């Protein structure tokens, strides 16, 4: 019984959150809607697409996307409409334009900066003068002998 349950669990396909009342009659429009909704982020679930999310806001976004497609919008216009209302955060893979270039490039730039600073520090340390030890004075040698003899 446990094996059967394990096999059924492993073979279970992922369930989509799209409700039957949301599905469009035109299969071509529905396929476009599914493709676009898989690239839009659920604002409640964060890293889940609106196609996979059961949140009510994701449902509203799915319905809005389908309304825009039925109205005759192209894929770019429909996604652009949602982005204009909710911001670029709604895209699962953000565009690399404008201020996003700073975010895309910040990691590599910081790595190069840290590597450069580390190299300069190590080179300066290698070139630095080594401290030479001064010999003990006669009083210090006598004091050391007293301590070691005890």
Automatic annotation (TrEMBL):
CDD domains, alphabetized: CcmH_N (cd16378)
Pfam families (alphabetical): CcmH (PF03918)
Keywords per UniProt: Cytochrome c-type biogenesis, Heme, Iron, Membrane, Metal-binding, Signal, Transmembrane, Transmembrane helix
Domain CcmH/CycL/Ccl2/NrfF N-terminal stretches: 6-148
Signal peptide start-end: 1-17
Transmembrane intervals: 101-122
Function: Possible subunit of a heme lyase.
Homology family: Belongs to the CcmH/CycL/Ccl2/NrfF family.
Name listed for the protein in its UniProt record: Cytochrome c-type biogenesis protein
Gene field: ccmH
């Amino acid at each position: 019984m446990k094996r059967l349950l394990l096999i059924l669990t492993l073979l279970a396909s992922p369930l989509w959150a799209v409700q039957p009342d949301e599905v469009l009659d035109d299969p071509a429009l529905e396929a476009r809607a599914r493709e676009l909704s898989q690239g839009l982020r659920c604002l409640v679930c964060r890293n889940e697409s609106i196609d996979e999310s059961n949140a009510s806001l994701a449902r509203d976004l799915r319905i809005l996307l389908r309304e825009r497609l039925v109205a005759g919008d192209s894929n770019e216009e429909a996604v652009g409409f949602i982005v204009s209302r909710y911001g670029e955060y709604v895209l699962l893979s953000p565009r690399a334009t404008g201020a996003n270039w700073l975010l895309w490039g910040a990691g590599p730039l910081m790595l190069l900066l840290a590597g450069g600073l580390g190299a300069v520090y190590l080179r300066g340390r290698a070139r630095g003068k080594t401290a030479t030890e001064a010999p003990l004075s006669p009083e210090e040698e006598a004091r050391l002998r007293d301590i070691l003899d005890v």
